[in-house]
Write a structure and sequence with these properties.
This protein is mainly α. It is built from 13 helices and 2 strands, in the order H-H-H-H-H-H-H-H-H-H-E-E-H-H-H. Keywords: ATP-binding, Coiled coil, Hydrolase, Nucleotide-binding.
C-alpha cells in the first residue's frame, strides 16, 4: 500500500444507539487522526460517552484499515502481474525487458509473501474463533463457580504433586507443544494493535465492559495487560508483595526451569519431565497457548483472566508475551 493511499472519512459509525453530535464529532476526528498518523489530544465533558466513542471510532478505523490494506495489496499484485506479462511478450528490446521483468518479479514475490503471511494470520484467528466451541474452553469455569473452590482445595492437598497432575486433563493434551518454538521475526505477520492505557485497573475493567456492550463486542480480540503483582498465581512469588522482589523471584525460578529424568528402582531412565522443585509449575508452553486462546476468544478483564489462569494452572503473565 502506497503512502499516498488514504481512506475516506466515513459518514456513519456503528454505535449501540444513535450517537449525539459530540460523540459523532469525536469519532470522526479520532478516525482522521489514526488514518493520517497524527497525534490527537481530545477532551469531552463527563458523561458524554468518551469510552464508547473511543471504542467505536478506533475499531471502525482498524477494521476499515484491514480491509483497505487487503484491497490495496491485491490491486498491487494484479498490476505487477499484468506488467510482468507485458514485459514477457515484448520482443522489441528483450534485454531491457528481461531486466525490468526480473525487478517486477521480485516485487511481486515480496507482495505474495506478505499476502501469504496475512492469510496464515487470518487462518490462525479463525482457529481461535472455533476454539470457543472446543472442549478446552468448556473446562474454563465461569465466575463464582463452586468448582473453583474445589480445585483450590485439591491443589493444596499435596504440594509435591507433579505439575502434570496439577493441570486439568484437557490441558495436557497439548504436551507436545511443551518446548517453545522459536520463530523468525521476519516471517510472521504483525497486525496493528490498539493500546488503551489508564491510571487504574478498575478503569480498564470498566472500559472492557464498554467493549462488550459495543457493536464490536462479539468480533474483536482484547487482552488486558498488567504486572506480575496482578497476574501472578504462584504462591512463592505472590507472598513477596514487593514488586521488585516479585520480578526478581519470577525471573529466578524461570531460569531454574529445566528437564529432569526420573529413575526407576533399577536405575534406568524411565521418563523425562519438565521442571524441578524450585521451578515455576505454571510455566508450561501448552498451558500458555491454551490460556492465550481462551483470552483471545473472549473479552475478559483482569479478574476474569486471573480466574482463567487458575483454572488452567498457568500464569497470565506468561501468556501476555504470546498474545
Amino acid at each position: 500500500m502506497t503512502e499516498e493511499a488514504r481512506m475516506q472519512l466515513p459518514s456513519t459509525f456503528e454505535f449501540p444507539f444513535p450517537p449525539y453530535n459530540i460523540q459523532e464529532e469525536f469519532m470522526k476526528n479520532l478516525y482522521f487522526v489514526l488514518e493520517n498518523k497524527k497525534l490527537g489530544i481530545f477532551e469531552s465533558p463527563t458523561g458524554t460517552g468518551k469510552s464508547l466513542s473511543i471504542i467505536c471510532g478506533a475499531i471502525k478505523w482498524l477494521k476499515d484499515h484491514q480491509k483497505f490494506e487487503h484491497e490495496q495489496l491485491q490491486q498491487s499484485m494484479a498490476q505487477l502481474q499484468s506488467q510482468k506479462e507485458q514485459l514477457s511478450s515484448n520482443t522489441t528490446d528483450w534485454l531491457v525487458s528481461q531486466s525490468k521483468e526480473i525487478e517486477v518479479t521480485q516485487q511481486l514475490h515480496l507482495l505474495r509473501l506478505q499476502a501469504a503471511k496475512i492469510e496464515e494470520y487470518n487462518k490462525k484467528i479463525e482457529d481461535i474463533k472455533k476454539f470457543k466451541q472446543s472442549n478446552l474452553q468448556k473446562n474454563w469455569r465461569k465466575p463464582n463457580s463452586t468448582a473453583d473452590k474445589k480445585s483450590d482445595e485439591v491443589a493444596t492437598e499435596d504440594d509435591n504433586l507433579d505439575e502434570d497432575d496439577l493441570l486439568p486433563e484437557t490441558v495436557t493434551m497439548n504436551d507436545e507443544l511443551e518446548e517453545p518454538k522459536e520463530e523468525a521475526t521476519d516471517t510472521k505477520y504483525e497486525p496493528i494493535k490498539i493500546y488503551i492505557c489508564s491510571r487504574t485497573h478498575s478503569q480498564l475493567a470498566q472500559f472492557v465492559g464498554e467493549i462488550i456492550k459495543s457493536p464490536y463486542g462479539e468480533n474483536v480480540r482484547v487482552t488486558s495487560l498488567a504486572s506480575r503483582q496482578s497476574y501472578c498465581i504462584n504462591p512463592a512469588v505472590q507472598q513477596l508483595k514487593n514488586m521488585s522482589l516479585m520480578n526478581e523471584r519470577c525471573l529466578d525460578i524461570q531460569k531454574k526451569q529445566k528437564n529432569t529424568t526420573k529413575i526407576d528402582e533399577d536405575k534406568r531412565a524411565v521418563k523425562k519431565s519438565k521442571g524441578c522443585s524450585n521451578s515455576c509449575p505454571y510455566f508450561r508452553q501448552a498451558g500458555i497457548e491454551n490460556l492465550r486462546n481462551v483470552a483471545l476468544s473472549n473479552v475478559l478483564d483482569v479478574e476474569d483472566l486471573v480466574r482463567c489462569g487458575r483454572d488452567l494452572q498457568v500464569l497470565k503473565a506468561y501468556h501476555q508475551c504470546n498474545a
